[in-house]
Amino acid sequence: MDINATLLGQLITFIILVWFTMKYVWPPITSAISEREKKIADGLEAGERAKRELELAEHKALDIVRVAKSDAAHIIDLAHKRSVQLVDEAKEDARVEGKRILEQAHEEFARDVSRTKEELRLRLAGLAIAGAEKVIKRNLDATTQANLLDDFVAEL
């Protein structure tokens, strides 16, 4: 095999092409590749960070929901206790008011009975005197009638 000028020319051209490629083409390509690798690595890291932050946020949200449920249960419990207390107070007030009304009714009834008894005594005394007048057939004077009436009422 002869080394001729064509082969030598091709070798020189190939060496110049490799040198030119290594000097001017290869560095921008390698820097673009390394930048792309860095961006991908940063993106993956940011994705991992976001995933961790999402997990933390979910845990915080669950804690907040748990605390809110606990607070709501506590508030409901307090409201229930207060409603029971209000019902008990209303029952007690109603019982006291009923007792007071019943006592008032008893007092009014006692007054009515006493007043009625007094009226009946006076009428009975008047009837007794009228009957006595008819029996003795004479009219008694007012002072004697009043004295007899007072004695009769006192006896009743």
Describe this entry's structure for a reader.
Helices cover 94% and strands 0% of the residues. Helix 1 (5-136) packs across helix 2. It has one domain. The relative contact order is 0.03. The mean pLDDT is 87. By secondary structure, it is mostly helical.
Question: Could you write a compact summary of the structure shown?
Answer:
The protein is an all-alpha fold and 156 residues long. Helix content is 94%, strand content 0%. The protein starts with a helix and ends with a helix.
**How many helices in DSSP terms?**
2
Mean pLDDT: 87
- Percent strand equals under 5%
Number of domains: 1
Helix content: over 70%
Largest sheet: none
Order of helices and strands: HH
The overall strand count is 0
Any low-confidence stretches, pLDDT <50, length ≥5? none
**Shape, principal axes of CA atoms:** rod-shaped
Calculate the terminal CA-CA distance, rounded to whole Å: 169 Å
What does the radius of gyration come to? 61 Å
Derived from helix and strand composition plus strand pairing, the structural class reads mainly alpha
